[in-house]
């Protein structure tokens, strides 16, 4: 037999006896996963608009914020004094406006910052969730929320169930809805995120407003210009008026819940090829919150090892 023929025979024999590589087992997604989600809306939900308008009311007039502060004080005066004070309010506001840098130098910027903070928390939030997959069903449980990068310490759990399918490595979660206590969340985030970023020493809006206005200076300015009433009278009216203004803004926050509608798509990761999904990667939610479409919403998760 020639050398070339022997070589062909040896190669053929070797080829016929080499085992084919084992195919990777199908991925089983069943299990529990800790999930981090991020949500960005295309526009703030409509229910947030009244609270935003209530904040901007302090700065949207041509003679604000002086006129706004004067009206807060006037509203707390006696019924006998109010008519005269209302009559001269435009002139008094102009006088106070010339001295606003001494009375409330940070009020205008502070109110704009509060409005901007409300818009940010209304547009974006993050979640910490638990997703459990069993058979063809998935159960989502949201356990915490963060707004503008800060955890608000939400107490409670919100859940929903949906169908789930896995096609090769493509994980799909069917459309479902979770009812969020949106008004409560927005109020929590406003007090714990937006307010402290304007006034680090304040725990609520009333405290921030009182810190942004020097009621003593404002009272002395009003009393000096009007020529009637004591500075103490106007100082008390200023403090009470700012507290009332905060209450009015809070009353404009939504009180009802909001429905988060979503469907998800993600990559099922099994890097060790043992047939068990180890992580959820590159997840994307599509849907809307109270009719405001999700501009971008993502989620990623890691398997919780069972004892």
SSE series: HEHHHHHEEEEEHHHHEEE
Q: Can you count the beta strands?
A: 9
Alpha plus pi helix count: 10
Looking at the structure, what is the overall shape? rod-shaped
Q: What is the number of independent domains?
A: 2
Helical percentage = 40-55%
**Average residue-wise pLDDT:** 90
Strand neighbour order, sheet with most strands: 1-2-3-5-6-7-8-9
Q: Main β-sheet, in a few words?
A: 8 strands, antiparallel, barrel
Q: Label the structural class.
A: alpha+beta
Strand content: 25-35%
Q: Please compute the radius of gyration using only Cα atoms.
A: 31 Å
Low-confidence segments, given as residue ranges, are 1-20
The end-to-end span amounts to 65 Å
Describe this structure in words.
It is a single chain. The chain is of the alpha+beta class and 307 residues long. It has two domains: 31-48 and 128-185 and 257-303; 50-119 and 202-251, no CATH class. Helix content is 41%, strand content 30%. An eight-stranded antiparallel β-barrel has the order 1-2-3-5-6-7-8-9. The longest helix has 21 residues, at 231-251.
Task: Kindly list the characteristics that best describe this protein.
rod-shaped; eight-stranded antiparallel β-barrel; alpha+beta; 2 domains; 307 residues
């Amino acid at each position: 037999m020639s050398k070339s023929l022997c070589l062909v025979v040896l190669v053929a024999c070797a080829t016929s006896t080499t085992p084919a590589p084992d195919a990777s087992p199908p991925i089983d997604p069943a299990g529990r996963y800790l999930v981090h989600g991020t949500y960005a809306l295309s526009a703030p939900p409509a229910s947030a608009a009244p609270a935003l308008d209530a904040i901007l009311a302090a700065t949207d007039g041509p003679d604000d914020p002086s006129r706004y502060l004067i009206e807060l004080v006037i509203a707390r005066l006696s019924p006998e004094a109010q008519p005269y004070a209302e009559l001269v309010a435009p002139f008094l506001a102009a006088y106070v406006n010339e001295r606003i840098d001494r009375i409330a130098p940070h009020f205008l910027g502070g109110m704009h910052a509060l409005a901007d903070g409300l818009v940010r928390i209304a547009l974006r939030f993050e979640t910490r969730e638990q997703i459990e997959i069993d058979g063809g069903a998935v159960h989502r449980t949201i356990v915490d929320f963060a707004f503008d990068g800060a955890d608000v310490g939400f107490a409670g759990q919100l859940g929903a169930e949906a169908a789930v399918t896995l096609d090769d490595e493509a994980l799909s979660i069917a459309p479902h809805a979770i009812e969020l206590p949106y008004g409560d969340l927005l109020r929590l985030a406003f007090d714990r995120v937006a307010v402290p970023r304007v006034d680090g020493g304040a725990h609520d809006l009333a405290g921030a407003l009182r810190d942004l206005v020097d009621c003593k200076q404002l009272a002395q300015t009003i009393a000096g210009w009007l020529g009637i009433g004591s500075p103490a009278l106007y100082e008390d009216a200023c403090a009470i008026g700012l507290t009332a203004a905060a209450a009015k803004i809070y009353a404009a926050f939504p009180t009802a819940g909001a429905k988060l509608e979503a469907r998800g798509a993600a990559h099922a990761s099994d890097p060790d090829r043992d047939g068990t999904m180890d992580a959820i990667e590159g997840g994307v939610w599509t849907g809307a919150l109270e009719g405001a479409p999700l501009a971008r919403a993502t989620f990623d998760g890691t398997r919780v090892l069972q004892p």
